[in-house]
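Posting here for the record, re: EPS.
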Amino acid sequence: LRYLTAGETHGPQLTAIIEGLPSNLTLDFEELNFQLHRRQKGYGRGRRMQIEKDTAQIVGGVRHGNTTGAPVAVVVENKDWTHWRNIMNVEPIEGTDEEKRRVHRPRPGHADLNGGLKYNLKDLRNVLERSSARETTVRVACGAIARQFLAEFGIKVAGQVIRIGEIEAPVHNLSIDELIEQTEASSVRVVDAETEKKMEAYIDQIKEDGDSIGGIVECIVEGVPIGLGSYVQYDRKLDARIAQGVMSINAFKGVEIGIGFEAGILRGSQVHDEILYSEEQGYYRASNRLGGFEGGITNGMPVVVRGVMKPIPTLYKPLQSVDIDTKEAFTAQVERSDACAVPAASVVMEHVVAWEIAKAFLEKFGGDSMDEIKANYNNYLAQLEKY
Ligand code: EPS
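Prediction output follows.
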């Protein structure tokens, strides 16, 4: 299972091609668009989200609501493109730098300068258009399809914001369904209303200061069978693949599985999850500090992943940089931006994690049709029961 994406933030559309989906997966288009809608929400988003209304159009690999086994092509239009038709034209255009909206002032924290130097591009727009987090729209579309595949096997995915800057959300002991329901009702994807209010006020303050703020998000996946991923080779360790996926989300600077960095503080006896057995449950754990993984393999406990997002680097408060034409110092000009995109990043992370799990699931139970995969899966469950 793999996908590639293409498209620029102010280009006509974003495109993804997914390969490796089995046939006869029934897609719920409304659910797919609901996931895209979730990514657009969140307190602290800027004006661009008022322009877009992300909708996935499937233009290959699906017929009468079912996958055929062929590559699935997904397209999401950029509504903002109507304002950029000329500037983003594929054909050459006449005009001054101003008219072409040529960017020659790299923004600290973005890919602008590194990208310009690397690809030898004198118009940094060519870098920023593709490095923009707008691309996460189609990553969510791919993940939403993976999520529907996982749901066929009773696997559920939830996400929550656990910190925005200085404000931390308290821990709540909820079922995954409660977590999904309660975070959905929140403007910042937290469980309790008090934290939500504090975070909103905090984001208002950050915005007023012309600044931006990051945070920490958590993803929980329940119903994952024992045995996805493998210890036998570095690139088959599923926790490592999830970490790669999460780190590749724009502005993410770190990933934890389970208690993560806290494992460097505690003693072994305080970290490892003791093994228990019962007739009904089979093998299970007394705790889940390792976040569902041992040896890069799922152990049947919920997969728990955290990611940290840095503050968005486009600031109203100027930072110093150097003009690539004149080599003169300047302080970055005001640009449209999100003061906080942590709630949206939480939705992106859910889909990136769902994707990696679906991929590992297909590696283990792989088949060309849903029936074949279900038979393989049930056969494996029977094997586990006999073990
Ligand atoms: C982004 C900059 C902003 C965000 C964008 C990501 O876009 P613009 O430059 O058009 O104002 O709105 O996010 C999205 C468009 C989105 O769909 O999430 C960036 O530089 O990464």
